[in-house]
Amino acid sequence: VLLVDDEAAVRRVAQRMLAATGFDVEAVDGGAAALTALARAAAHGALPSVVVTDVQMPGIGGRELGARIAAAYPDVRVVYMSGYTTDELLRRQLAREGREVVVKPVTSATLRAAVEATLASAAR
User: Fold this and answer.
1) Calpha distance 82→106 (Å, rounded)
2) How far is the C-alpha of 50 from the C-alpha of 102, rounded, in Å?
3) Torsions phi, psi of 9, nearest 5?
4) How far apart are CA 2 and CA 26, in angstroms?
């Protein structure tokens, strides 16, 4: 799992949650860093199965990051996280598109379930 969040505290907690449930997690602080990590992983033939990304980030936001991932790495799935109530319309749109969206603050069980559901849908 590649975890992307610009808030260090959120990133640390989410990384611990995912690691505690058995996922191998790399955490980065934004969209540009995520794209760099994905390019590096692709060069080594070790792309993550899932990217978990915050929606609202400076620079490359989660929605744009998801679009870039879909274009460059179509086998990599994306789970979106959002903590802003103003993102409700975006959350609904992502859900209609079949995307997993979790609302922050997120629990370990919710985050794990979203990643597992995304992996299961990729296996179909």
Assistant:
1) 9
2) 14
3) -65, -45
4) 5
